Amino acid sequence: MLRFNASATLLSLWVTLGLSLAQSPSPGEPSISALIEDLANRDYRRREAALKQLESRSPDDLPALRRALESTTDAEVRRRLTGLVERLERAAVLAPKQLNIVVKDRPIQEVIREIARQTGYSIQYQGGGNQTVSLNRPRATFWEVMDDLNRLTGATMYHNEGQGLIVYDQDGYWPHTILHGPFRIVANNFSYHKNLQLGPVPKNPLHDHTRSESLTLTFQLFSEPKLPILGAGQPRLIEAIDEFGNSMKPVAAPHEVLYGGAVGGYRMFQTGSNVILNWPNKDAKIVKRLQIALPLTLLAEQKPLITVENILKAKDHKAAQGEVELVVHEVKELNNTQYHVRMTVRNLAANAAQDFNWMNSVHQRIELHDAQGNKYMPQGFNWENSNPGNVQATFMFGNNGRADLGPPARLVYLHWSLMQHTIEFQFRDLPLP
């Protein structure tokens, strides 16, 4: 029962701290069923105590809570359970992957393979070095381990659609980094500009704007592969203080602009943005505290909506489900390595004519599988005649040299559940230019 259209709230404490989702009740702690029964108790204090205890439980209890929600006929219990289930579902989405990496003088390739095994993420190492790594991380988040690798070896990564995470060697690391649940934020640079307009010069000295200066911090946000980013909004500067205690926050907010694909709506795993600051005291060389709020649109869940079986023989096949209809016009095979699927995909939702995000992301919602569920790599698409509610295109897939891929068996269209979330983070002791 994923409902992710509400405004973002603060993460639960155990998510913020990166604790494991596998927490179990302490001995003597009331059972889920007993607490749910107390939600309907005539004693107000019993009801409130039960709700408080349920709120402290982990997402492992979600199946029991969902079953209780489906079976209850008590309106008050249903109201309380609905809110609780939605909060736990949200927290489960925002919880980081947990790892246990304890190694001594092991090749970096081996460590990365172990990270991939524990997370289930597709991670490829494309470095050429023979570096060895020692890590003692028996209980760490994904980004804590990857940040350790970056500091120790310079290992850096990017995400390739179809291949997953690509790790490569780089002679450098990111010293100003914030790890926040499934997110990693790095400070890229400060940019300071001074400008003097030589002419024309205004005759009225009160209107002299020939001199100007600007200070901009650029940063990047990375998300775990389990939680793609669909867009980022205008960052909000909450606080900026130099080492002398002066505020560096502009009095008037700059003109709002959307950054990082907020209009694009396609699946990505990193986005860049910036904030503008004042520099009232040029003797200041450090920003002691800089706090930012960044609104994000996240892809909370992907699940099959339409499946076309026997895809190689699905000429003129039509299928519809929910608010989506697709027609497979033709499937072409090229040298047993590449397949072109010519299709029409229609968005039947009421707002389809204005939903450019859907149109821009259709190519990422379509997958080609073999009989075992292995995925072919997307290799692009060619638009034919498309608008926000109707996409006609040829989608291209390849086996990328994988010997384990069988012939294409099915085409899958994925339904996306979106979530709005605002992340707040704080840099400390950033050097000024």
Describe the structure.
With 433 residues, the protein is an alpha+beta fold. The chain is 19% helix and 41% strand. The strands form five sheets. Strands 9, 10, 12, 16 and 19 form a five-stranded antiparallel β-sheet that branches. Strands 13-14-15-18-17 form a five-stranded antiparallel β-sheet, with no helix packed on it. A four-stranded antiparallel β-sheet has the order 6-7-8-11. Helix 4 (62-71) packs antiparallel against helix 5. The longest helix is centred in the first third of the chain and has 20 residues, at 75-94. The chain is globular.
Provide the fold topology:
Blueprint (H helix, E strand, L loop, with lengths): L12 H4 L15 H7 L5 H12 L6 H10 L3 H20 L3 E10 H12 L3 E3 L6 E10 H12 L2 E5 L3 E5 L8 E4 L2 E14 L14 E13 L5 E4 L3 E7 L27 E8 L8 E24 L7 E5 L2 E11 L3 E10 L8 H6 L4 E5 L6 E7 L6 E9 L9 E24 L2
Parallel strand pairs: 2-5
Antiparallel strand pairs: 1-3, 4-5, 6-7, 7-8, 8-11, 9-12, 10-12, 12-19, 13-14, 14-15, 15-18, 16-19, 17-18
Helix pairs in contact: 2-3, 4-5
Q: Give the % helix.
A: 10-25%
Q: What fold name goes in the CATH topology slot of the domain at 301-420? A: Immunoglobulin-like
Task: Calculate the mean pLDDT score and round it.
Answer: 87
Q: What's the N-to-C terminus distance?
A: 49 Å
Poorly predicted runs are: 1-25, 254-263
Order of helices and strands: HHHHHEHEEHEEEEEEEEEEEEHEEEE
CA radius of gyration is 26 Å
**Overall strand count:** 19
The CATH class of the domain at 301-420 turns out to be Mainly Beta
